[in-house]
Amino acid sequence: MREFAFEQRLCASLEREVDGVLARQLGGGVHSARRVLDVVVVEPGPTFDDRAAITGRSIPRRAIESDVGRGRSRDWRGAFDLPAERARGIVERAVEVGFFERDPTAGAEHVRRACRYPDGWFDRLVAVENKPDLGAPGDLETQLLKDVRLGLVDEVVLATASHVTRAHLNRLPDAVGVWRFDPETLDRSVVREATPLPVDEHGTEIVEEHAGWTEVRLASPTAKARARRRLAERAYGKGWRVDEFPGCARVRDEAAAGGGGLPRCEWKGRVVDPGNECGPDCPGFEGDDPPSVDVAGERDRRTGWVAEPDGLASRQAGLDRFG
Ligand code: SF4
Fold it and tell me: Which end of the chain is less enclosed by CB atoms within 10 A, N or C?
């Protein structure tokens, strides 16, 4: 089974078992964008529902970190430590998702936060590295060692379909947990528990690697906390299902672990990655309308994520009036 199909079925299975939200293929660095985490599990914190009530999309981290506050609006042009064009794009996105609102009576460029940002909305972050076949590990051990040294997430786990031997375990960093997952039966067993990583302490991150030299940066607890929030936000907005099914007569909506949204190709006999495998270049392609699959609806039904919330702005504005 290809890694993509393994990942899709693992996500379907985890979604049934864990509380919180899941996403795949997200940047897992602090100062560097090099590391991409296969799957991230975001466990809910006490204010998860408040976060879900704002928007189903990611709130831009620069908007959260900006000097735009609640209450009195201000000109956004002085509120970001960024080039104006970049800041403008962030303001537009923040308005679009309902985190900022415009205040045209005060000025054309005036905005304020439409609601509070619920800082405690997420709790632990778990990163899962998928390696269905341990016979072809690539640079797995180095990769996991880097994750452990950085300590951005609370736990790092390796998921594999292979039989895990003592020799495999000895080669992995001690803190890395190991799951054996059968993508056919969806059985998952814990071979080794992960050890929690010190997310509140300094970590080290390789930001550049060249022949003969490597640049390493220290990641402070503050920088890590920001990067964790960015990661959680991206995970919240992204999820793990494909955005669109291909326009091919041979694709079906596969249900796994009680939920649908996995693109199964009847011609290939497995779950496929539409972005990389589908289209007129595929020898089995038969042009057709894509099947109507409610991907967002699946996620909404099966997790605490809300596809189209009403938004907190009006609710909080109402409360403030009587507060
Ligand atoms: S394009 Fe190819 S891989 Fe994709 S669904 Fe059609 S036959 Fe399958």
Answer: C
Q: Whose CA is nearest to atom 7 of ligand 1?
A: 284
- Asked if residue 158 lies in contact with residue 144, where contact means CB atoms within 8 angstroms, the answer is yes
Q: Which CATH class is domain 3-48+120-238?
A: alpha beta
Helix (H, G, I), strand (E, B) or coil at 232: helix
Q: In which band, very low, low, confident or very high, does the pLDDT at 312 lie, cut at 50, 70 and 90? A: low
Rounded distance between C-alpha atoms, residue 90 and residue 230, angstroms: 14
- Alpha carbon nearest to ligand 1 atom 1, residue: 278
Instruction: Give me the pLDDT at residue 120, please.
Output: 94
Residue length of the chain: 323
What tokens were used for 270? 């497995």
Ranges of CATH 3.40.1350 domains, the chain: 3-48+120-238
28 within ligand 1 shell (Cβ under 6 A): no
In the chain, which residue ranges form alpha helices assigned H by DSSP?
A: 3-17, 48-54, 61-65, 84-96, 140-150, 166-171, 221-238, 274-277, 295-302, 312-322
Q: Which residue's C-alpha comes closest to atom 4 of ligand 1?
A: 278
Sign of CA dihedral 314, 319, 322, 323: negative
Determine the pLDDT at residue 323. 34
Distance CA 127, CA 41 (A): 6
pTM above 0.90, yes or no: yes
B/e letters for 102-126, b = 16+ CB within 10 Å, e = fewer, are: bbeeeeebbbbbbbebbeebbebbb
What integer pLDDT is reported at residue 321 of this predicted model? 43
